[in-house]
Amino acid sequence: xxxxxxxxxxxYSGDGTTSAFAYSFKIFNDSDLVVIVRTDSTGAEVxxxxxxxxxxxxxxxxxxxxVTFKFDTGNSGDSxxxxxxxxxxxxxxxxxxxxxxxxxxxxxxxxxxxxxxAHEEALDKLTFxxxxxxxxxxxxxxxxxxxxxxxxxxxxxxxxNKYLGFNSEGNAIAVDGTTNATTISTFGATLVDxxxxxxxxxxxxxxxxxxxxxxxSSQIDANSVTASELNISGNGTSGQAITSDxxxxxxxxxxxxxxxxxxIQSFTSSGTYTPNASALQALVYVQGAGGGGGGADSDTDSNxxxxxxxxxxxGYIQSAFIDVSAGSxxxxxxxxxxxxxxxxxxxxxxxxxxxYNDGTISLTAKGGTGGTTTSDKIAPDVxxxxxxxxxxxxxxxPILNIGxxxxxxxxxxxxxxxxxxxSGGKGGNSFFGYGGRGGKARTTSDTSDYAGGxxxxxxxxxxxxxxxxxxxxxxFPAGDGTGGIIIIYEYT
Length: 492
What we know:
By secondary structure, the protein is mainly β. The chain contains four helices and 31 strands. The protein has two domains: 9-105 and 120-135, no CATH class; 258-492, no CATH class. The chain is 8% helix and 27% strand.
C-alpha cells in the first residue's frame, strides 16, 4: 500500500460510558498500538495493558480499527467483559498512538521472484517508524534554523544540582541553584507577570507612588521598622520612649510621668499584687474594714432600755503615684475582715486593718472600732461611740489619709408619757460604703426593728441594737461591719 497519511495518534475525552474508540491509521500488530489514559486535573499518565484493559481490532487494515475498553457488560461471554470498569472516565483523556519496534523483519531469498508484498510492507514499516520519530521530534525543543552550530548540554558532573541556563551568546550553561523547588503562589505569579514598575507597585499595594522615599504608614508594616532603620543605637529598655535628638537621629528616653490608665486591679481578699507588664506607675486606694455595732440586752424593767452604738467605718488611704516599673516589683496585700456585731450586752468587735506593703512603702488603713453597749438603763443614757483609729504610713506621702469614720451614739430617751424609747446608733460610713441602720425600740410588742443593720459596701460599720422594757425573746444583735478593699489603678 501507499502511505498517504501522516497521522500516528488520536485522542478522545472520556465520559465514563463510551468503551470503543476508533483509530484511523494502519498498524501491523495489536501491540503496535499504545494506549495512554491521562488524568486532566493532575497530568498523570498511565499506559494501559493490552488484553487486560482493552482489546484492539483490525490490525493490518489500512483504514485502522477500534480500541475497546473492558467493563461489566452484563454478559460474561462478551470478549470485552470484565468485572472491573476500565472505561475512561469524565476528566480523563485517552490517547491512541502507533509505536513501532525499531526492527527489520523482512527476509529476501536469493533468486526468488520479486517479493512485492513483503517489500512494500517493509517500506511501510520504515515509513511508520520515520513518522513515529518525527512525532517525537515535534514534541522536543529545537534550535532556530538560523542557529548554525549545534549546542550540547554541559556534562552531567557540571550540571548536577544546577539549573539549565543560557549565556550571553545563547549557549546552554549550568546555573547555580537549589534542588528544592517551591511552588509559586498566586500572588507571586501576579507580581512576576507585571509589565512595569507601576504595575508591580499596584500589586504590592503601593498605589501610585513614584518612589519609595515617600512611603507612609499605610504602606509599611509596623513590625518591619527596626532600631537601625531609625538610626537608634541598641534596643533600649522596656517602657522607654523614642525621642528626636534634633539632628535627624533618635534616642531612647525613660518615661518619668504617669500616662494612660491601662488596668485596674481590685483585691477583696489577701494576696500578692503583681503589676501589669506595661505598668510604670500606680495609684493605690486602701480601705480598712468596718467595726461591728454594739448589742443590746433585754431589760428587767418596763421603764428601762438597752442600746448599742454603731461600729466605726474603716480608715482610708489614697496614695500618690508609686513606681512599679521594676520587672520584679510586687506587694503584699492584706484585706481586713469586717467586725462582728455584738450579741446582747456585748460590744461589737473591731474591723481588721487593710495593708499594702511592697517592702519599702507601707500603707495601713485601720479597721473601725466596734460599737459600745449599755443596758438596764433609764433615760437619758447614751452608748457612746468608741474611739476611732489612726492610719499609719511608711516612706510615702499619700494624697488622702483619713482615719476611721465615727458612727453614731446609741441613746435611751423618755417619752412624755414617762416610758422609755431606745435608738441604736447608725454605723459609720466609709469611702466605699455606708453604715448599717441603728435598731429602734418603740414598743415591747413590736421587736422587728430592735436589731442593728449590717454595713453596706466595703469598710462600713454595723448599726447598734436597741431594746425597751421587759421584752420576751431575750437580747438583740447588732449589725456586722463590712470587710476592706484595696484598688490599684495602673498607668503607663
